[in-house]
């Protein structure tokens, strides 16, 4: 039976990949990548020669049909994102949904678990995370106010991603709504310059501004409960 493996890859440090993931990436017929150039660095590091094909949020229906046809032929494929777990704030879930709808019992979908920025940030936050809300990236225009209101009003910790270019803007918007927020901001998780900022939102904003603002950020907001 055909198989689509959902393979987690490192979020920064290339050592954070499982032996099982490396074996699967070596054995499958094709690796579907969010960006083939990014995945190539990982594959080259581990001397994996498996061919790759790009699959991302802008991929057209023809490419999805092509992937489904490969599975109909009994091929084994792996889906990876640029970093972390495919399908988590990532276009991989769309492909999985299409395969489930088109192939039903003709193909297996198998998780190869591993790194995820969400769980990494939650684990170092110090906040109770038996329940938490993950919201992905904030909207850039519409629905921003509603997005941040949901965070402010949450009983449980909230985790979201943000880019270098918008981290200060997003934190300032939250600060205006509630100056008493306790937050943890993780920058460049697992990488050489990993930094974790903790404390009142106003103080954290000032600390981030003192540093060179670069890299990807994960924000954890303490809930009301």
Determine the CATH superfamily of the largest domain. Tetrapyrrole methylase, N-terminal domain
Overall CATH class of the largest domain: Alpha Beta
Order of helices and strands: EHEHEHEHEHEHEHEEHE
Helix content: 25-40%
The total number of structural domains is 2
The CATH topology of the largest domain is given as Cobalt-precorrin-4 Transmethylase, domain 1
What is the 3D shape? elongated
Structure annotation, total helices: 8
Q: Give the strand tally.
A: 10
The average pLDDT is: 94
Gyration radius (Cα, Å) is: 19 Å
Low-pLDDT residue intervals, each spanning 5 or more residues: none
For the biggest sheet, the summary is: 5 strands, parallel
Beta content comes to: 15-25%
Helix vs. strand class: alpha/beta
Enumerate the strands of the largest sheet in spatial order, edge to edge or round the barrel: 3-2-4-1-5
The N- and C-terminal alpha carbons lie at a distance of 47 Å
Overview of this structure, please?
The protein has 225 residues and is an alpha/beta fold. It folds into two domains: 111 residues, Cobalt-precorrin-4 Transmethylase, domain 1 (3-Layer(aba) Sandwich); 105 residues, Methyltransferase, Cobalt-precorrin-4 Transmethylase, Domain 2. The chain is 37% helix and 21% strand. It has eight helices and ten strands. The longest helix has 12 residues. The mean pLDDT is 94.
Strand and helix map with partners:
Blueprint: E1 2-7, H1 19-27, E2 30-33, H2 36-45, E3 52-54, H3 61-72, E4 76-80, H4 92-103, E5 107-112, H5 117-125, E6 133-134, H6 144-153, E7 158-162, H7 167-177, E8 182-187, E9 195-200, H8 201-210, E10 217-221
Parallel strand pairs: 1-4, 1-5, 2-3, 2-4, 6-7
Antiparallel strand pairs: 7-10, 8-9, 8-10
Keywords: Cytoplasm, Methyltransferase, rRNA processing, S-adenosyl-L-methionine, Transferase
GO molecular function: rRNA (cytosine-2'-O-)-methyltransferase activity
Catalytic activity: cytidine(1402) in 16S rRNA + S-adenosyl-L-methionine = 2'-O-methylcytidine(1402) in 16S rRNA + S-adenosyl-L-homocysteine + H(+)
């Amino acid at each position: 039976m055909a198989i689509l493996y959902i393979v987690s890859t490192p979020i920064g440090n290339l050592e954070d990949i499982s032996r099982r993931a490396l074996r699967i990436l070596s054995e499958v017929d094709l690796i579907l990548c969010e960006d083939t150039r990014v995945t190539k660095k990982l594959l080259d590091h581990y001397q994996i020669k498996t061919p790759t094909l790009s699959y991302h949020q802008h991929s057209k229906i023809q490419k999805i049909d092509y992937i489904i046809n490969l599975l109909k032929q009994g091929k084994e494929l792996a889906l990876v994102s640029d970093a972390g777990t495919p399908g988590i704030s990532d276009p991989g879930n769309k492909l999985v949904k299409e395969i489930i709808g088109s192939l039903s019992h003709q193909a297996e979908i198998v998780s190869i678990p591993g790194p995820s920025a969400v769980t990494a940030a939650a684990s170092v936050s110090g906040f109770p995370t038996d329940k938490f809300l993950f919201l992905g990236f904030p909207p850039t225009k519409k629905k921003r106010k509603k997005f941040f209101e949901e965070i402010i009003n949450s009983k449980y910790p909230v985790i979201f991603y943000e880019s270098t270019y918008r981290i200060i803007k997003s934190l300032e918007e939250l600060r205006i709504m509630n100056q008493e927020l306790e937050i943890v901001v993780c920058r460049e998780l697992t990488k050489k310059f990993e930094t974790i900022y903790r404390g009142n939102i106003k103080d954290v904003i000032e600390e981030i501004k003192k540093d060179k603002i670069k890299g990807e950020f994960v924000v954890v907001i303490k809930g009301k409960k």
